[in-house]
Amino acid sequence: MENAVGAVIPDNARIIRNLINGIQYVQDHVIHFYHLHALDWVDVVSALKADPMKTAGLAQSISDWPNSSPTYFKAVQGKVKALVESGQLGIFASGYWGHPEYKLPPEANLMAVAHYLEALDWQRDVIRMQALLGAKNPHPQTWLVGGMAIPVDPNSQNAINAGSIAFMNEVAKKSLDFVEKVYIPDLLAVASFYKEWAGIGAGVGNYLSYGEFQNDNVSNTTNTWLPAGFIRAKNLAKVEPVEHKKVTEDVAHAWYKYSDGDEKAKHPWDGETNPNYTGPKPPYEFLDTNKKYSWVKGIRYDGLSTEVGPLSRMLIAYASGHKRIKEVVTMVLQKLGVGPEALFSTLGRTAARGIETLVTAEMLPVWIGDLAAKIKAGDFRIHNPEKWEPSSWPKEAKGFGFHEAPRGALGHWVVIKDGKVANYQCVVPGGWNSSPKDAKGQRGPYEAALVGTPLKDPNKPLEILRTIHSFDPCMACAIHVVDAERDEIIKVRVT
Amino acid sequence: MAKIAIDPITRIEGHLRIEAQVDGGKVTEAWSSGTMWRGIENIVVGRDPRECWAFVSRI
Fold first, then answer.
1. Cα distance from B4 to chain A (closest Cα, Å)?
2. ipTM computed for the complex
């Protein structure tokens, strides 16, 4: 909307948006690592066999995080034991515990389980920064065309004031502490047992980022703290500038109907969202994958299947010569004893998320300082009303709003006519990565990443989960439900 | 040779189904299927563009 009508936001609004997005990266990535992904690598039940004394030794050898005594780990082990003995695993139910592909020693499993539990408390505390600036989490409420709907006023109790700045600085410190002393050491420790995954799950090899953390008050893809760009066929020697007109949506294998035929992909400004389910009537055994087979459109950049997310952002930053990201990437590669080519993998995707969390957590105090300096200088402006009234808009306008969400490139395209929305298309990160095949038969990023993945036991497809979870799937960010009546999650047909 | 379907994939946000062809202990082909319809784009058509963010940020 701002892009369509040419709204310019004040500095404070830009900084607050960057802080809301920044703390979101840090919290969301930590939750992903511990609560959505770690159990693909960590065997919870094996933690019962750990020696708490040796676990303490391991924890102290990789970090000076204070919760590392034998008594502490013994207590955590007691909690897990009580769960397992109750026969109701609760949050740890439905795992492939005991799968031969779990490689961590019991002590590393116990340490990771302890940090899984600690991260639950930590994430609740740190996201309060977003709740303060956005009025709530999730789905912050303070966005406004032309700025933000949150007052900045050092003389008001109900506005961003010196107290809010002090609170945010505490949250930023707590964020960075956990990331430096728990997340990164755990990530490196776990990854060192799974280095073969640096050769699995590469995927399509094309990477896109719109850029994030705006330096200008008019959003653009040329002046952001995390750079925008496109990397073609893993070529780190060349980062191409982003042109949003190269984004298209293909429905050859998606349950939609285009008014002028399903063969030709459309740019989102000309996009259509006409549902057309042609799949089998549930319950069914398999989809007819020669025809349409997904509600996700085949999203392409310059006609190519393209990956988005932390790996794309870190590769683009690394290849663009971003100083701090180069340092951290190099440190991680050195500690794991692998080269940059290892980044094109399932392990690389998971490592990139950790690297991004660290560098973002480091920036939070800087952005809080920027906001404090504006307040100190007497600049409390938070909204620019110049483009608020529809009378200030052209009769017809088109906009491209973009942002790097934690999971990757997010673009919304709007067409405005006579003050109303005439067309709107959302092209979301989960859509890019989970794209089905297109009219040319190109695989989507998940599909391409899975081909070649070894699978020990088709009844327990742990390896598939590792690669899929490495992308941090967000299928339109809705609730997910396990059907208790139809508890069969895996279906295998031997042919 | 086996064809497998995992539905739903858990520990994610939303609904995802993966079908895979497995030959010789390796995945040889895969299909990713979003099994949930999202109609947010159609909800905002005809609305005041200033209020779109409140709808579309729910995705």
1. 4
2. 0.96
